[in-house]
UniProtKB/TrEMBL annotation:
One of its GO terms (molecular function) is adenosylhomocysteinase activity. It comes from the Eukaryota. The lineage of its organism: Eukaryota, Metamonada, Preaxostyla, Oxymonadida, Blattamonas. It is an enzyme of class 3 (hydrolase). Pathway: Amino-acid biosynthesis; L-homocysteine biosynthesis; L-homocysteine from S-adenosyl-L-homocysteine: step 1/1. This is Adenosylhomocysteinase. Belongs to the adenosylhomocysteinase family. Its EC number is 3.13.2.1. PROSITE patterns: ADOHCYASE_2. It catalyses: S-adenosyl-L-homocysteine + H2O = L-homocysteine + adenosine.
């Protein structure tokens, strides 16, 4: 039966979402096998599970899986542009309350995050899947605000204003004290992405973390696959769907050469673009050189580069001043989790700058000297804003990790407040589940060989320090 409590663009899109889900299921072999393996055991039976993660077709298969394993799920997207509306409608049609519309406002975004956390009868979530840490932030800030309401005064920007508003919205509906009741009942959070994980470690060091967390991002089968090969697929996909501009021969600047940067640089090079990388870390800069890219600073490439992609998870990487000096019609986009990598607000408020919308998630900004730049997805992650994000096969790896993390949380594997990673043997298991679909045949160690290199025949095969 369809859910009654939801906000999606158009519930009539459910049929289309269901058909797309069928293609995704076929690709998401590891996730589907994990679903089959645990379905009978019902490891998530009756658990109230709230998710804040891009509401795409691939996420629909994750939600289906969590439900098949017994969870009572509510969901929202973790970015205002990243929802695939048909996938959201499909999930509602299966009975799950979803609050996600592609192009929702920031205010709606935070209200939807709040509504996702509010289960019927005044209850809150017992387990959370988060991507970027906004749902985690809402619960922590709401908890702190019940101790000292002054934390909600003088918000430093619009985003924080709406976050604070969402906390008050929950108080209005559930009464003050709701966060103090709910937060201690949350058994664990599994966090999807680098930026969200960075936030968790920061809270842990500050002593403000209230809930045990699983760092899914740093499973090798997540960050070394989704962040790299996912972006290798979806970076160029987003740029091309947005602009249809030929990339071959152009100079493209990739800011940051971590996992996401490596994938983006490769995808642009594969199109024939000449890629320049910017980095702050000498190791990553050297890696970029050895992979055959030039390494320079954004200022150095302004006269030449026609495409810019930020991948750093840092702020103010492309500044308003940079954009004021770029080539005419340079394309500027970000694929990192938050939009503050590009100084969009400052640039758009520069005297004489004019904005013209080309189509949804594509804007032209013209400077007083007559040159323009094309900004993708208002500076939010371009692969989900201008395309549909990563393809299903790679997301199967990420979401198998998410599912195993949720099962582990339910089983009580992560009781003390801390940030955990999944054991390497599970990481290897996730990879193992995905090999047959690619026709790969693993070599099996003999006992003698295993003893010689000092590993068990069945794994794990690497020390924790190994970096892949
Ligand atoms: P990472 O830590 O592996 O890489 C970031 C790199 O940026 C590092 O090498 C760092 O040295 C460099 N960097 C930092 N500040 C810089 C600056 N001012 N200029 C140049 N380089 C700078 O992180 P990862 O995993 O590559 O993630 C990057 C971002 O992408 C995060 O926000 C993450 O959450 C997000 N992400 C987005 C995805 C998407 O589908 N759009 C998928 C996966 C991650």
């Amino acid at each position: 039966m369809a859910a009654t409590d939801y906000v999606v663009k158009d519930i009539a899109l459910a049929e289309q979402g269901k058909k797309l889900a069928l293609i995704a299921e076929h690709e998401m072999c590891g996730l589907m096998q994990t679903r089959e393996k645990y379905a009978a055991q019902q490891p998530l039976k009756g658990i109230r599970l709230a998710g804040s993660l891009h509401m795409t077709v691939q996420t629909a298969i994750l939600i289906d899986t969590l439900r098949v394993l017994g969870a009572d799920v509510r969901w929202c997207s973790c970015n205002i542009f990243s929802t695939t509306d048909s996938a959201a409608a499909y999930i509602v049609s299966t009975g799950v309350p979803v609050f996600a519309v592609k192009g929702e406002s920031l205010e709606e975004y935070w209200t939807y995050t709040a509504r996702t956390a509010m289960f019927p009868n005044g209850e809150g979530p017992q387990q959370i899947v988060d991507d970027g840490g906004d749902l985690t932030l809402l619960l922590h800030k709401g908890f702190n605000a019940e101790n000292d309401e002054s934390v909600l005064e003088n918000p430093e920007n619009e985003e924080v204003k709406f976050l604070n508003q969402a906390i008050r919205f929950i108080w209005e509906k559930q009464g003050k004290g709701w966060f103090h009741k709910v937060v201690p009942q949350v058994r664990g959070i599994s966090e999807e992405t680098t930026t969200g994980v960075n936030r968790l470690y920061a809270m842990k060091s500050a002593g403000t973390l209230l809930i045990p967390c699983v760092n899914v991002n740093d499973s090798v089968t997540k960050s070394k696959f989704d962040n790299v090969y996912g972006c290798r697929h979806s970076c160029v996909d987003g740029i091309l769907r947005a602009t249809d501009v030929m990339l071959a021969g152009k100079i493209a600047c990739v800011c940051g050469y971590g996992d996401v940067g490596k994938g983006c640089a490769e995808s642009l090079r594969a199109q024939g673009a000449r890629v320049v990388v910017t980095e702050i870390d000498p190791i990553c800069a050297l890696q970029a050189c050895m992979a055959g890219y030039s390494v320079a600073r954004v200022e150095d490439v302004l006269p030449e580069a026609e495409v810019y992609v930020t991948t750093t998870g840092n702020k103010d990487v492309i500044t308003a001043e940079h954009m004021s000096k770029m080539r005419h019609m340079a394309i500027v986009g970000n694929i990192g989790h938050f939009d503050n990598e590009i100084e969009v607000d400052k640039m758009s408020k520069m005297p004489g700058v004019k904005r013209e919308n080309i189509k949804p998630q594509v804007d032209k900004f013209t400077f007083p000297d007559g040159h323009s730049i094309i900004l993708l997805a208002e500076g939010r992650l371009l692969n989900l804003g201008c395309a549909n994000g990563h393809p299903s096969f790679v997301m199967s790896n990420s979401f198998t990790n998410q599912t195993l993390a949720q099962i582990g949380i339910a089983r009580g594997d992560f009781k003390t407040v801390d940030v955990y990673t999944l054991p390497k043997i599970l990481d290897e298991e996730v990879a193992r589940l995905h090999l047959p679909k690619l026709g790969a045949k693993l070599t099996v160690l003999s006992k003698e060989q295993a003893d010689y290199i000092g590993v068990p025949v069945e794994g794990p095969y690497k020390k924790d320090a190994y970096r892949y």
